[in-house]
């Protein structure tokens, strides 16, 4: 029996009849609290809709994912086992646009 079939059989044995096993949740960070705190600090009287907050959260997750993927790729080219702060700074400056990258590094 293949490993996939064994997992299916095991899952079928552990779940009650008529119920499907719960799907694994993807671990996604949520920055909504921090976005709201930054917004109220800069613009105290302005609110934000939940849909806009969700879009900004998605953009932040995408940016952080791109930044996290860049240093290991660069470290492989340099044959280094670990990432240094300089490699992280290089990743930020490569991923973010010019002025935003400079502000992030300062």
Automatic annotation (TrEMBL):
InterPro entries: Histone-fold (IPR009072), Histone_H2B (IPR000558). Residues 1-10 have a biased composition (Basic and acidic residues). Gene3D superfamilies: Histone, subunit A (1.10.20.10). Residues 1-25 are annotated as: Disordered. Belongs to the histone H2B family. This is Histone H2B. It comes from Platanthera guangdongensis. The lineage of its organism: Eukaryota, Viridiplantae, Streptophyta, Embryophyta, Tracheophyta.
């Amino acid at each position: 029996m293949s490993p996939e079939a064994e997992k299916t059989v095991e899952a079928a044995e552990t779940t009650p009849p008529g119920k499907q096993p719960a799907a694994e949740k993807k671990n996604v960070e949520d920055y909504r609290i921090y976005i709201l705190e930054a917004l109220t600090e800069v613009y105290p009287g302005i609110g934000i809709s939940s849909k806009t907050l969700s879009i900004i959260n998605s953009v932040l997750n995408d940016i952080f994912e791109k930044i996290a993927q860049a240093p290991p790729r660069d470290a492989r080219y340099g044959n280094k086992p670990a990432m240094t702060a300089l490699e992280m700074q290089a990743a930020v400056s490569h991923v973010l646009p010019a002025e935003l990258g400079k502000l992030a590094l300062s």
